[in-house]
Write a structure and sequence with these properties.
alpha/beta; binds iron/sulfur cluster; Rossmann fold; binds 1,3-dihydroxyacetonephosphate; 16 helices
Length: about 375
């Protein structure tokens, strides 16, 4: 019979942490936070599960977390409770050459507690595919007139591509302002990897669907487009999506409205245009939280975004009536991989100066990615 283990071994292998009781893991995490003080910053995205986000020094949407990684003074290590692209962004911004120089050459160590915490949408655009698309586009239209815009949910190499080609990064909370910036510079935009955020934002700006097209990276014939279609398009949307937000359907909105008269539908812009068209309000995770916080008691909401955030809102606002928009479970399975065991295990190693799961973007990629990120941070 296995002897029950109740203490994590100091910086042992991960397997020794799996299955430890939550109280033990919580105590250890808090002990490390106390001992490391401001040298350690734990960042948590709003989709993170309850037990984990409870330990975050700062919770936020992708934009807020990237800003905080850019600004944080006195921190030596960041444990990012989010997904891979967020930790990469934190590494790039926290370790800009000027920041590293001001610390006498010391880098901030960024760790992702579980390396399997990726983003399926980010994985839908590989740098080789984007470079091929750019070259193919150049055979049909003048690419000096195209601004590449990458959603922050993308690999660092794509951000670097944007940096090199006069482009920019956006998040769900600044996509409109970023597209305004892009259209002030050129006639067209290549938007990747999320077609929905691109389409929803461009439509809200008054760009008709007839001036948008979708680029399928798996179709070798101009991404599935005719030359005329590309020539007539102002927005070229990469055919990528979030598998979590794709599960919200317009019929879910209809069903809730029929069931709860007066219900307000609040969704994330990664939802399809058909869902967004039926919603009352559309915005980033922080926007969604703000709407609920500001609403009077008794407001009925149908919310279309990741399950953990909706459940948290339900618990924190018992005076409001909050429903999940979909009848099925839509959760970010990769974000959910960050659990107490992985957080405790990675913090134990950090404290002992033997970090595991370090996210380190190579200098050349970081140099160009920071260019595109700083353009975004400068946009108001
Ligand atoms: P926010 O930028 O709104 O936090 O969204 C991030 C994300 O991954 C949504 O799926
Ligand atoms: Fe990526 Fe979707 Fe998860 Fe957001 S919810 S991190 S877009 S897979």
């Amino acid at each position: 019979m296995a002897i029950p283990v109740s203490e994590p071994p100091p910086a042992g292998p991960f397997e020794a942490y799996r299955g430890l009781p939550d109280e033990i893991l919580r105590d250890h995490i808090e002990g490390i936070r106390r001992r490391m003080g401001p040298r350690l910053v734990i960042l948590g995205h709003h989709y993170q599960q309850e037990g984990v986000i409870a330990h975050a020094d700062l919770r936020g949407d992708s934009y807020q977390l990237s800003r905080s990684a850019a600004d944080r003074e006195g921190c030596e290590a960041i444990a990012f409770c989010g997904v891979h692209f967020m930790a990469e962004t934190a590494d790039i911004l926290a370790n800009r050459p000027d920041k590293v120089a001001s610390r006498g050459g010391r880098r901030v160590t960024v760790v992702l507690p579980d390396m399997a915490a990726g983003c399926s949408m980010a994985d839908m655009a590989a740098i080789e595919q984007v470079e091929d698309a750019w070259q193919d586009l150049g055979d049909v239209i003048d690419t000096s007139d195209v601004t590449p815009v990458t959603y922050i949910n993308s690999a660092a190499s794509l951000k670097a591509f944007c940096g090199r080609h006069g482009g920019i990064v956006c998040t769900s909370s600044n996509a409109r302002a970023v597209l305004d910036w892009a259209f002030a510079r050129g006639r067209r935009v290549l938007f990747f990897p999320d077609q929905h955020l691109g389409r929803n934002t461009a439509r809200a700006m008054g760009i008709p669907l007839t001036e948008m097209t979708v680029w399928n990276p798996h179709d070798p014939t101009l991404g599935g487009n005719s030359r005329e279609r590309l020539a007539g398009s102002r927005v070229i949307l990469w055919q990528g999506h979030c598998s979590v937000h794709a599960m919200f359907r317009p019929e879910h909105v209809d069903a809730l409205r029929a069931h709860v008269p007066g219900i307000r539908i609040l969704v994330h812009p990664e939802c399809s245009m058909e869902v967004v068209d039926k919603a009352n309000l559309v915005g980033s995770t922080s926007f969604i939280i703000r709407q609920v916080e500001q609403a009077p008691p008794g407001t009925a909401w149908g919310i279309g975004t990741e399950l953990h955030l909706v459940k948290r809102l339900e618990q924190e606002h018992p005076a409001q009536s909050i429903r999940f928009l979909s009848p099925t479970v839509c959760m970010c399975a990769t974000m959910y991989r960050i659990d107490l065991a992985h957080l405790c295990w990675s913090l134990e190693h950090l404290e002992r100066g033997r970090p595991v799961n370090v996210i380190r973007v190579d200098d050349e990629t970081a140099r160009w990615a920071v260019t595109a990120l700083e353009r975004m941070l400068a946009v108001r």
